Amino acid sequence: MAQRPGIFPTFFLSGFECSTFLWKDRRRRDLVEETGHRAHALEDYRILQQLGIAVAREGIPWPLADRGAGYGFDCIAPMIDAMKQTKITPVWDLCHYGYPDGLDPLSDAFTSRFANYCRAAAEHVSRHLPGPAFFTPINEITFFAFCGGEWGWVAPYLTTRADRERFRLALCKAAIAGVKAIREVRPDARMMHVDPLVQVVAPPDRPDQVEAARHETHVDTFLAWDILCGKEHPQLGGSPEVLDIVGVNNYSFGQMEYRERGPHQALEPGHPGIEPLCVLLQRVWERYRRPMVIGETSGMGHGRPEWLRDVMNEAMAAVNQGMDLHGICLFPAVDMPDWHTGQWLHNGICDLVECGGDLRRQPFGPYVDELRRWQKELNRVTAVDADPYSDPVELQDVIDAARRLQPRPDADWH
Q: Molecular function (GO) terms listed (predicted)?
């Protein structure tokens, strides 16, 4: 029996890119199809099983499953079958930047239709998969609000800050309704709401932008979580139980120089405005005091193992400062294309190699080696057994490792 049991059966999680947005060209993208995950679901899950990762963020594509007059969940049948065979627990992502055609996301109909879909999805997966249930109702509300509400990259193709604010509020309203609908079916369901960690600084020659950068770092970054937990717009029904598990997504481009229009500029390595990841984690922990997960993180190319090492050192420093950290999600499990160029990013545990019209999965050895090293440091399993929940994560092992290692927060962790 664990002294301090974690929420998940393994400390390391992973996941699969599952965006289904309408892109700038007005065409529907299905990243699960583009990465071959649907066709390779069992192989992908066996890779995670062999790596000792028993939890995966997985998508249910709302635009494909919601047919207006009923639901069809055949699109996730290969994933459910793979989960049954490998004993891997999903965190179901119910809206990953995509919603059904013809639906106005700023309308009340959006909220009610999303809630009905969430209820149906929860019923479906509960019939097919026993055990604990985890959901992310709407992925990265803050980023989705920018992407579709101010930058015009994806539907609804809005382009002003006021639009972004309205879109974010609508997404929060729908997410809260979705949580409540899911818990009508599964009162025990856990929610993991993810959004990016952000640090924004003004350009050195623009002191007039200091306040705007500060606002985005210390106010804007948190507003969606604030609404979900009931700190802001309480009339929407948010509460700490709705927020539940806080998932923070951490990438290098989350530390940025402010731009008045369009996406901000990622800071160059060594920039004095870069903050240690530990500092960013502590901002979130001190604000909510909820269980936390690094919901997505990955380096690029040959830098993946060094990125994992830096993230783990920073996470251990945050644990030493009292943060209740329950896991780190190495995302994605298999490579994904850059949305804009279509080029493979080489940010997954496995690279994808085109071979005879198929996409072969090729684990990146140095990244796997670094994962193995940290599994041993934390006294964690290195392969998923027949019953992952028989040996839950012992958070005391994580705390003991952090105390033993005593890493120092490092602004040069890029």
A: hydrolase activity, acting on glycosyl bonds
Q: Which helix (H) or strand (E) holds 3?
A: none
Tokens matching residue 129: 């998969």
Alpha-carbon torsion (355, 46, 28, 70), positive or negative: positive
Cα–Cα distance, 251 to 298 (Å, whole number) = 7
Quote the CA–CA distance of 136 and 91 in Å, as a whole number: 7
The domain total for the chain is: 1
Reported confidence tier of residue 390, pLDDT bands at 50, 70, 90: confident
Q: What is the overall mean pLDDT for the chain?
A: 96
Does residue 125 fall inside a structural domain? Answer: yes
pLDDT for res 392: 82
SS3 assignment, position 306: helix
pTM over 0.85: yes
Distance (Å, rounded) from C-alpha 409 to C-alpha 414?
12
Residue bearing tokens 């990762």:
53
123: domain range? 12-405
Structural domain includes residue 128: yes
Residue 412 placed within a domain: no
Q: Counting beta carbons within 10 angstroms of the beta carbon of residue 207, is it exposed (0 to 12), middle (13 to 18) or buried (19 or more)?
A: exposed
Q: Is the pLDDT of residue 413 over 70?
A: no
99's CB contacts (< 8 A; 6+ apart) are 62, 63, 105, 110, 114, 155
**pLDDT number for residue 412:** 76
Place of tokens 């984690």: 281
CATH of the domain at 305: 3.20.20.80
Whether residue 130 lies inside any domain: the answer is: yes
Mean pLDDT for 39-65 is 98
